[in-house]
Specification:
By secondary structure, this protein is mostly helical. Helix content is about 85%, strand content about 0%.
């Protein structure tokens, strides 16, 4: 803001000095005395010096404005680079978090799969034991039935003869 105000003041001053210079360079109608001419030359030189100083000041203002624009552009580039770096860092962090989540899910899936396989293995073991026990029960039933049948087959031969009527007693 200050630079723009200074630039406007310098431009006004240069413009007024230039217009004053134009009016003063017109040849006077009355010839001037040497001392008046000398005063006029000094005034003209002072105005020229003032105009030169204003031009130098204007150049300084322009250079300062240019430097300010360059600083602003450099700051904008730095801010943009920082924002891009921050965005890249965030993207990298999100990618790492996503990878970690994927690994965690993969591990959870693996553990679930192992648990399912373990449960299936235990179920099969229990089924095999149940089948073995059932087979033993069935074998015991068969052996028991064989033993009963064997006892039945042996029983008529071993069994005492049917009771006969008692023999008459002899006199």
């Amino acid at each position: 803001m200050k630079l723009k105000l200074l630039a406007a003041v310098c431009a006004f001053a240069i413009g007024s000095a230039a217009s004053a210079q134009i009016t003063e360079t017109v040849t006077p109608l009355v010839p001037l005395s040497p001392s008046d001419q000398q005063i006029l030359n000094v005034q003209q030189a002072e105005r020229q010096i003032q105009a030169n100083e204003q031009a130098v000041a204007l150049e300084k203002v322009r250079a300062a404005e240019k430097a300010a624009r360059q600083r602003a552009a450099a700051q904008a580039r730095q801010a943009k680079a920082k924002a891009e770096a921050k965005a890249a860092q965030q993207a990298k962090q999100q990618a790492a978090e996503a990878e970690a989540a994927a690994q965690k899910q993969k591990l959870q899936n693996y553990q679930d799969q192992m648990m399912q396989m373990d449960l299936e293995s235990k179920r099969l073991d229990l089924e095999a034991k149940r089948s073995k026990v059932q087979t033993e029960i069935d074998l015991n039933k068969v052996r028991q039935q064989q033993a009963i049948d064997s006892l039945k087959n042996q029983a008529p031969a071993v069994a005492p003869a049917p009771a006969q009527a008692p023999a008459p007693a002899l006199p």
